[in-house]
Q: What sequence folds into this?
């Protein structure tokens, strides 16, 4: 990531804002046939696995409803829960820091690391640290972040950005990964094959050295239990567990919305998350820790609570639903748009349907031409809502944020844009039966759609024909044949 | 795709309420006739009148009296989904007024009924027009998609149609996920004489239309359409059918550009065909 710092500010690109609006970025991505193949294969596999393990749970719908209720309660009671969490973590020997935005959060983390004198830190896979551009900030301070999640390592070695929330290297295939390892990892043998086991083994040899040496690890969390102060990380590889237990200092960065009220809420959420995320009944590693345990694990523990636009999102009674998200990425895997363009086209570390509703809210610039294009990157087919384990009505939020984006773009703009005028004219016609009847007759006279001459339709017409208006509208037929009847 | 998401809970068609005599198997034997107001939809009215005429022909053949309230224009979905809820408000107000006198409303469109049931009242409420929201809610409860009317209210699956062709069915997203029409269209199709129903691969994947999406994101839309078309062609069907003319217009636009010879037809057109006459 070349531009860290406050996400989305001043129109610069960064972790939450790409360089171009979605339609342009998507066009570029679509041209990459290798990418489309990689994505189609990977999402199809995850979809099938998820469908299987979700299908075998008899009370899946009840579980989703319970998950929804827990997450809704958490967002409703957020300030109070965060204070309880802080009190619990402090009572158990941890230090809690509050950060308003990415700049504050990265400064806190860099300070924590510098206090130890470490020049290299281990990183557990974490979306929040990607969101705040932490790696860039660490590098600027002369500290080397080492990603320990296999996929994050691949992304880091390639100088790339993640393209998926759970599977950050989903855009890469085995052969591409083999080449990366051959190039960058001294442990890779010359005859390295592209077998997943073999690739994982090389990465493991590479990382083991680091686990035993590094004094500091940085992690995110999946959940933070307010009543006990317990933090939870779920993962598949066990590398996270190494990072959470071997170093003497642990710095954990979390978005404030990750808090949940009670310990027993994990019962529901730890069933929903792995099935929705990776299609596993249970994830192989679930690490939980509460403050500091003398003589066991990290002896210094910092928790950094990041707002990063979340309080602002919370103030929107409709938009706030997005804060329920548990980052399982089921909505990405079922999204037909995501499947075709991949995560990079969204220009945000949060791609896909959830990214399209979360990103503009976190940046707080809904009218921006780049992030404001994201809520429009959906056909509203509803597959995301069907898949979401906490019942976030993503289509409804997309529609809501489209309105917010239009209003944002209108601000300070006179006269209104051509599309606003066109939609206004259409609304005038469509709000009255006789006007619509008149428009239908007018269209028939031209025998072509009145809209066919508009420039946006040129790309439509490249691959599709438009229907020809019929000789007689339905309304006219009814009036001609039924007048005086019934 | 697992069934029943949250938004499905709100959907309860006013089943049988309209049938004073308890719902006999055949509408023709019914003593009290059912009267429905046709919500033609703006697309059917202006671009696909054949679908409207087929719907009327089908319903009248089944003994239903059909009205066409001439004040109707559009449900407002396009404006809401494009991010212009304020402009949609007048459209919704007109829609609710146009059907205020109707006891039961039917539309040959999953998408428009989806908007009536899940969008109109919400938009009105968000605009602060609570009276309109209440009226819209009441109207939503009396509005049915065509296959819901046939299967749930009329309790008819064999509509007496004859259509000797190989047909594949594309479940449109709003009919599938907003209305949960489920297998109603397939059940109706499977009783059509001479019709061979072939299953569409990846049927539940969106065709890429999405209203203004296809204009705002034409390339992604075209890529999705391309995949849908290859699935349709792989079935060897002569006709692809659905319950929404919007998606069919998109699919037909692609089929026609590729000169495939495969036709896109609304389900109502197939069900209206008897083999004797038009
Ligand atoms: S929105 Fe729902 S499906 Fe998507 S990542 Fe969040 S929890 Fe998962």
A:
């Amino acid at each position: 990531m070349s531009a860290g710092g406050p996400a989305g500010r001043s129109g610069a690109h960064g972790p939450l804002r790409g360089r171009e609006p979605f339609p342009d970025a998507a066009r570029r991505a679509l041209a990459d046939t290798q990418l489309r193949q990689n994505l189609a294969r990977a999402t199809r596999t995850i979809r099938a696995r998820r469908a299987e393990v979700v299908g075998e749970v008899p009370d899946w719908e009840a579980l989703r409803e319970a998950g929804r209720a827990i997450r809704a309660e958490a967002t409703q009671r957020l300030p109070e829960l965060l204070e309880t969490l802080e009190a619990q973590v402090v009572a158990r020997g941890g230090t809690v820091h509050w950060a308003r935005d990415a700049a504050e959060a990265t400064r806190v983390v860099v300070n924590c690391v510098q206090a130890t004198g470490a020049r290299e830190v281990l990183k557990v896979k974490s979306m929040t640290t990607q969101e705040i551009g932490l790696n860039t900030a660490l590098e600027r301070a002369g500290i080397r972040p080492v990603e320990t999640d296999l996929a994050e390592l691949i992304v880091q070695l390639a100088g790339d950005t993640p393209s998926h929330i759970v599977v950050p290297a989903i855009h890469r295939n085995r052969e591409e990964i083999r080449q990366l390892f051959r190039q960058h990892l001294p442990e890779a043998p010359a005859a390295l094959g592209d077998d997943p086991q073999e690739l994982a083994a090389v990465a493991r040899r590479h990382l083991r050295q680091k686990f035993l040496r590094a004094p500091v690890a940085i992690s995110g969390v999946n959940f933070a239990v307010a009543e006990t102060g317990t933090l939870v990380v779920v993962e598949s590889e066990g590398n996270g567990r190494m990072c959470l237990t071997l170093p003497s200092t642990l710095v954990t960065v979390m978005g404030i919305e990750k808090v949940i009220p009670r310990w027993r809420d994990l019962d529901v959420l730890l069933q929903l998350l792995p099935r929705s995320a990776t299609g596993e009944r249970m994830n192989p590693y679930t690490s939980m820790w509460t403050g500091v345990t003398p003589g066991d694990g990290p002896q210094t523990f910092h928790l950094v609570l990041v707002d990063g636009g979340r309080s602002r999102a919370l103030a929107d009674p409709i938009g706030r639903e997005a804060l329920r998200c548990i980052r399982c990425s089921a909505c990405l895997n079922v999204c037909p748009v995501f499947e075709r363009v991949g995560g990079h086209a969204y220009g945000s570390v949060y791609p896909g349907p959830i990214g399209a509703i979360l990103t503009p809210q976190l940046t707080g610039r809904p009218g921006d031409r780049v992030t404001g294009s994201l809520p429009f990157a959906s056909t509203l087919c509803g597959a995301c809502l069907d898949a979401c384990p906490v019942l976030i009505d993503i289509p409804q939020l997309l529609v809501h944020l489209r309105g917010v984006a239009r209003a944002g773009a209108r601000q300070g703009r006179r006269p209104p844009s051509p599309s606003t005028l066109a939609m206004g004219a259409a609304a005038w016609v469509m709000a009255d039966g006789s006007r619509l009847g008149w428009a239908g007759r007018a269209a028939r006279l031209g025998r072509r759609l009145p809209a066919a001459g508009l420039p946006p339709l040129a790309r439509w017409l490249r691959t599709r024909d438009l229907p020809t208006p019929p000789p007689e509208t339905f309304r006219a037929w009814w009036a001609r044949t039924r007048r005086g009847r019934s | 795709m697992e069934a029943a998401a949250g938004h499905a809970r709100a959907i309860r068609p006013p089943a049988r309420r309209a049938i004073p005599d308890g719902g006999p198997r055949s509408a023709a034997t019914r003593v009290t006739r059912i009267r429905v107001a046709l919500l033609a939809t703006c697309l059917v009215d202006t671009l696909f009148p054949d679908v409207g005429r087929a719907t009327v022909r089908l319903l009248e053949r089944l003994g239903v009296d059909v009205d066409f309230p001439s004040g109707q224009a559009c449900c407002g979905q396009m404006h809401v989904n494009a991010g212009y809820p304020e402009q949609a408000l007048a459209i919704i107000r007109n829609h609710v007024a146009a059907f205020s006198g109707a006891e039961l409303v039917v539309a040959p469109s999953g998408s428009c009924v989806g908007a009536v049931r899940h969008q109109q009242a919400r938009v009105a409420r968000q605009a602060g027009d609570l009276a309109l929201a209440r009226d819209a809610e009441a109207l939503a409860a009396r509005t049915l998609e065509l296959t819901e009317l046939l299967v749930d209210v009329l309790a008819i699956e064999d509509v007496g149609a004859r259509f000797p062709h190989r047909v594949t069915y594309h479940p449109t997203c709003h009919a599938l996920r907003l209305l949960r029409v489920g297998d109603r269209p397939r059940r109706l199709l499977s009783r059509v004489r001479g019709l061979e129903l072939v299953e569409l691969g990846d049927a539940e994947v969106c065709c890429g239309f999405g209203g203004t999406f296809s204009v705002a994101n034409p390339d992604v839309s075209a890529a999705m359409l391309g995949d849908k078309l290859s699935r349709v062609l792989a079935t060897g069907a002569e006709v692809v059918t659905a319950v929404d003319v919007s998606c069919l217009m998109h699919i037909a636009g692609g089929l026609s550009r590729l000169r495939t010879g495969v036709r896109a037809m609304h389900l109502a057109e197939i069900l209206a065909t008897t083999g004797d006459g038009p």
Observations:
- The beta strands of chain A are 95-99, 120-123, 144-147, 216-219, 223-225, 230-235, 249-255, 259-260, 285-290, 300-306.
